[in-house]
Amino acid sequence: MVNITSNFEGIHKKTDLDVQNTMLYVHMNLDTPHSTAPLLVEKGEEKFLLVKDIERGNFDEEQISAEVKYYNKYMTFDTDDKVLPSDWLEICEEIAGNDVVEIDDDIYTSAYWKLSKALKSKLKKTGNWFRTFVYELNREDVQRAFAVGGEAGCQDALKLISHLKQEREIAELLGNQPVDSRFTLLDDFLRDADLDALLISSPLNMQEITGLPYEYCKLNDLLVMYCPKGSIWVWSNRPIDYPWFRLKKIYQEIYELSRKSEVREFDAIGIEEDHLPYKYFQALGLTGKKVVGMSMDLRRWREVRASEELSFYVVAAQATISGIDAALEFAQEQFNAGNVLTESDVQSRLYSHYAQYSLDHNLQVRIVPYFIVLHAGYRTRRPNLPSFEPLNKEHTKTMKLDCGVLIIDQKGLVRACSDLCRTLARNPEAKQMYQYLNQTMITNAIPAALPGKTGKEVYHAGVFAMLDSDDHKWVDMGLLPQRGLEGKFERDIGHVLGKQEPVSLGFKKGDNGVLRNGMVCCVEYQWPYDRYAIGVEDMFVVTSKGPVNLTR
Known about the structure:
Elements (H helix, E strand, L loop, with lengths): L1 E4 L2 H8 L3 H4 L1 H5 L10 E5 L2 E7 L14 E5 L16 H9 L4 E4 L4 H10 L2 E4 L7 E6 L1 H9 L2 H10 L7 H8 L7 H11 L4 E4 L2 H8 L3 H6 L2 E5 L5 E5 L9 E6 L4 H5 L7 E4 L6 H6 L6 E4 L1 H9 L6 H28 L5 H18 L5 E11 L21 E11 L5 E4 L2 E6 L2 H18 L9 H14 L3 H5 L17 E3 L23 E10 L2 E10 L6 E2 L3
Parallel strand pairs: 1-5, 3-4, 5-6, 8-12, 12-13
Antiparallel strand pairs: 1-2, 2-3, 7-10, 7-11, 8-9, 9-10, 14-15, 15-16, 15-17, 18-19, 19-20, 20-21
Helix pairs in contact: 7-15, 9-14, 15-16, 17-18
């Protein structure tokens, strides 16, 4: 028998891997954390952890009581030609062979669909909630919950922009932030998909539809049913004491919802297939209905509304870049003084700066660390969490700091995030490459991000000069292998933001997603090779008059 699970607690118990505290993309992926987290496959006495290659180095394999198998190879310029499976399903098929696979029923629905289609399978029950409180909400109350923090966010943002090159443009945008269109746009999305209702299961999207804080949604068992032009229904396994929640019914078991609640009225329902535990898909009787996966559409829904909360993105960008500058300056000072320094010391300086920044500017919002990638180039080229090992001053040619924050308003709602990168370049070669990437970003890539442009068009604008130029200079400087770029740059150069990263639209080959006026975006260049990990990244907002930089 083969068993497959994505349950974080189960993985921790069986392998000693603390997924929630060691995996980078679990932190970043607020709406679908399990979809990028490891899977545990057990076959007899054997245990296998299936992990994305990008997470290599974020945990000690020797301390894990399972064989680690990597997939979805991360791009570096290093001459490593080892081929990895593109997807975890390939590894599952190899391990399972012709055996029946037992799948924990709390696995996210799209994973169950993939596994059950490819393998002989059956479900293993993991338990459901039983007492179900049914609440009804109206849209106006939800919009009021978000409106409360808007003025404070704008006041905070205006304090922080006086030094920016495009201060006037930012101030004008802050004075004309669009009205809250969340429900109008959501109705449009559902109409275009020909859906009767939408079942929401991820904490981030539940926040956006109910006005409950993200952390509350994360810590409690909740489901939300959204009906176009109708009520919003919330199902909870415990009472909710927020005043705009009107208790309508209490059911003994969640299964009763499929027979007695609004679910039975709908023939076509959208779901968050990359988040919804399959056991709830079953419990709600969705197997006999038309079901459409909407995980990516809901990301897009948040991304196109970013300008409605632009003030919070401004605060996020300014707090983050201030912290990065302070942390890397601290690192340079420690190197100059000959002091022992770890990457975690630099992280500590960054996080303490966030707190001081908030006090110095008397901010009304909260700045919360979101994610961090921090490492010397000689240690790894993959995006790693900071290490506790003392850094070798002579070997540290670069130190890359790529990080972001979440901005939380007075009601506890996540209003924006950031994603910025800078590098401490410590030798002439690294400094020259860093300056080159920075200039390419400012001159070529960001100006191309205009309303109506696709992700692939921005990508091509950002890499054409790089691919058209002679890269032998970088080879001679030790920044590329002998083969050079070979006329290709095989990674994205940025993305949009929608209160998180990952997103629905990236600046990469083949991305046909279209930029809209008001989208908040990042352009980034990453250069991982040999003992170098160099990165630079800015945030900006798309406007019809051209991009407006929120970073510098």
